[in-house]
Amino acid sequence: MRYPIGQLGTKEEFDKFWYDARGFGVKTDYGYHEGCDFNLKSGGDSDLGQLLYAVGDGKIVYYHDNSHPTTGFGRHMVLECQTPVGTRWYHYAHCQEITAGVKEVKRGDVIGKLGKTGTQYAHLHFAVFRVDPKTLRNGIDTIAKTITELNSWWEDPFVTLNMDEKPKDLPEWFKTLLQERGLSLDREGEFRAFWEKAVKYDDEVKSLLGQIQSLSDSLGDRAKEVSLLAEQNEKLRNERDQAIEDFNQERDKFNRADWQAKQQEIKIRFLEEEIEKINAELTKANKRIEELKNSQYNQLR
Question: Does the 11-168 domain belong in CATH 2.70.70.10?
Fold first, then answer.
């Protein structure tokens, strides 16, 4: 296979002048990125109008030229090719121009121009369908909403682009795995079913891990709340203990003052009694004085 951009279409040329701005499987706001976004390293819209090439011998089987040039994938087309690992459908999106109509092409033929239709910046969204896109829910406009859909319906474009013309022999560990599971690459349906179960299991594990993380975060928040409440409780307990101590001190002062007041009351009563006694003695003394005065007065007279 050759690369869909660049005059030579080689990996070396791509690595020198181009880069993947948004890779396969990147999480998006709608699900997962189904392909790669190819841009020139010169930046901006410097790649606008660059020629697009057929990655292999095949035919243009699907295209949207003017149906939605300002939304979604803009102007886009699908090239169907036979590869050493089976049929693949190559998706060229956001094109400035496309080769419309069902058309036979050869590897390296110009089939369009890189553009920015349906997107803000010029780039080539290049994806590889593992299944005929016409069978998917929205045809060639289908996007990957789940990781299962991504791995079932698409594959990493670089796997295809860097694929040798002749497939390499399978590694021994993979052959052993297939044998242990009673699987064969010749029976694609069985292998896909096994793979989808594995992907589903992986999704469930990731989901459970996400739930565990969420619960862990929630427990962490609760622990912080409990710690804060414990601090507030400790502060209130200290304030209560201080209030009790202040109360006891004031009560002791009151008791001492009350005792002193009672002692003063007793002393006052005692003094009042003494005053009454003295007043009685004074009364007697005054009476005696009067009697003596009267006696002397009578004698003088």
Answer: yes
